[in-house]
Design brief:
With about 260 residues, the protein is α/β, with parallel strands linked by helices. Helix content is about 40%, strand content about 15%. It starts with a helix and ends with a helix.
Length: about 260
């Protein structure tokens, strides 16, 4: 059993337990469930923003503890103030140290929030909206094309945008009309090896009607420039900032370098 299989097996038990504890009706009464959502697509296309979807992540299965001292509010506020186009919030507890409440804490910013988790049940989509997310992640490696479409339809019906994550050419068949953005994860979820060549190969095959986002393995401004030239509009970056003593300073410095590089170019 690889890492992804272990995560999904645990997620099924976890979601079943939460469904016993909380009803959909109660989630639909939460403040954020009926609040209008910000558009990640719009923020990614806004020239005043960086195109970066910056992540808050405490740990990972491959790296262990990444950052267990920074707060959601402090880090996401710095991300927002320095031009982040989106905020990616890890809500998986067992493997990534996150929690649903982290979504709500991030709503202090006027920047679209992505619930990053392993979505296997429509209940999680309702949860995402109720706790303040505006975008959900659907991972092709965890779902069939039919499941992606069904979950995406539900997400769209309650005002959420949908980011579909793919890892290889075979998963292109998961793209459907209801998907807003297509992310290429440069990290192999089965062995966690990383290569941006995956993004550079798949960008040519993603429909031009879908905004393309490169995920993982982005740790310098030159990589972003390369990916932008290839056609990517968004760049999801997590560990690169979170592993630093101060993610806030690390992100601000990175944006300064990126702007200088783009200006020089």
């Amino acid at each position: 059993m690889n890492i992804l299989d272990k995560i999904i097996a645990h997620k099924k038990v976890e979601v079943a337990s939460r469904k016993m504890e909380t009803s959909i009706a109660s989630l639909e009464k939460e403040y954020f469930f009926n609040k209008a959502s910000l558009s990640l697509k719009a923020f990614l296309l806004d020239p005043s923003k960086t195109g970066i979807i910056s992540e808050f992540k405490r740990k990972s299965p491959s790296k262990g503890i990444i950052n267990d001292h920074s707060s959601v509010e402090e880090v996401t506020k710095a991300y927002a103030q320095n031009g982040a186009s989106g905020l990616s919030i890890l809500t998986d507890t067992e493997f990534f140290g996150g929690q649903l409440a982290d979504l709500t804490l991030a709503t202090i910013n006027e920047v679209p929030i992505l619930r990053k988790d392993f979505m296997i049940d429509e209940f999680q989509i309702i949860e995402a909206k109720a706790f303040g997310a505006e975008v959900i992640l659907l991972i092709a490696a965890c779902l069939s094309p039919q499941e992606v479409k069904q979950m995406a339809i539900l997400a769209k019906s309650i005002g959420l945008e949908v980011l579909l994550e793919i890892h290889n050419e075979q998963e292109l068949e998961h793209i459907c009309d209801e998907v807003d953005l297509v992310g290429v994860n440069n990290r192999n979820l089965k062995n966690f090896e990383v290569s941006i060549d995956i993004s550079l190969q798949l960008i040519q095959l993603i429909p031009s009607t879908k905004l393309a986002i490169a995920e993982s393995g982005i740790n310098n401004v030159n990589t972003i420039v390369t990916l932008q030239e290839a056609g990517f509009k968004g760049f999801l970056i997590g560990e690169h900032f979170m592993k630093e003593p101060s993610p806030s300073i690390a992100f601000a410095d990175f944006v300064t370098q990126l702007k200088a590089k783009q200006y020089a170019g």
